[in-house]
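R.M. (postdoc): so does anyone remember the format we settled on? I'll just put the structure tokens first.
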């Protein structure tokens, strides 16, 4: 059972777009079965989502939704950085100001978070936030298989849509599945789960790739689970990759 340690703390962020996530224990990793799990000739299916282990996560804040074109434009204006290549005349596409910004490298995402007084979430924080206060959910909304009309934007060809068009999860977060993949702060380690510390793991110290979570608008339903892990080179830019920010909670 999930143990929330700070559920009664009346924490608020100065940023109205951030949500407080109370610290607690949760079971990280894939607990649901896959059709091929029992095949003796392929016994390590999706090994990087296992072993499942109880982790303790400190309280933190995380953005309610993915960083939008509108928000990223403010960052570019303040820092004189180059706009994403698909922005006409260096400005967000008309009518898509509240869509997730995409084609952002890990370094650019981290720079935005630092500029805004935040950071990228760790992979463990991301999964904890995606699951919500219930234990063992397959998807951010529960165990029902994904539905395009009710749950998330996925398995399509038209790109992401406006943020928060689907119901929030039980922590009050939008689009933790589908829409765009989200950068995490961690380096990717295929066997990291087996050796990670039990409290606030931050990923391997070395590695060529950074973690991506959540699936995207082009993916099939199987990539939308809370436990599914992906990764990319930090310099990667893709119309399927965006991000959201986090901030550590410091009790006063």
């Amino acid at each position: 059972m999930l143990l929330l340690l700070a559920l009664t703390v009346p924490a608020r962020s100065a940023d109205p777009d951030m949500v407080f996530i109370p610290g607690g224990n949760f079971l990280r990793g894939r607990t649901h079965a896959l059709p091929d799990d029992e095949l003796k000739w392929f016994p390590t299916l999706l090994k990087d989502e296992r072993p499942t282990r109880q982790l303790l996560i400190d309280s933190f804040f995380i953005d309610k939704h993915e960083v939008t074109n509108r928000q990223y434009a403010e960052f570019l204006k303040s820092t004189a950085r180059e706009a994403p290549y698909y922005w006409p005349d260096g400005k967000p596409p008309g009518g898509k100001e509240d869509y997730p910004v995409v084609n952002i490298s890990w370094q650019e995402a981290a720079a935005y978070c630092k500029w805004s007084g935040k950071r990228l979430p760790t992979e463990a924080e991301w999964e904890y936030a995606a699951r919500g206060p219930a234990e063992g959910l397959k998807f951010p909304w529960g165990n029902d298989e994904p539905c395009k009309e009710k749950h998330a934007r996925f398995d399509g060809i038209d790109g992401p849509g406006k943020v928060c068009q689907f119901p929030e999860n039980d922590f009050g977060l939008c689009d933790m599945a589908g829409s765009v993949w989200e950068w995490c702060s961690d380096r990717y380690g295929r066997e990291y789960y087996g050796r990670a510390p039990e409290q606030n793991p931050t990923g391997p110290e070395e590695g060529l790739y950074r973690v991506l979570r959540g699936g995207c608008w082009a993916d099939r339903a199987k990539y939308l689970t809370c436990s599914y892990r992906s990764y990319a080179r930090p310099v990667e830019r893709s119309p399927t990759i965006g991000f959201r920010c986090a901030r550590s909670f410091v009790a006063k």
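R.M.: ...and that's the designed sequence above, right after the tokens. Also worth knowing: Residues 1-252 form a domain with the paralog of FGE (formylglycine-generating enzyme) fold (CATH 3.90.1580.10). The beta strands are 3-4, 18-21, 24-28, 53-57, 60-63, 181-187, 210-213, 229-232, 241-242, 246-248.
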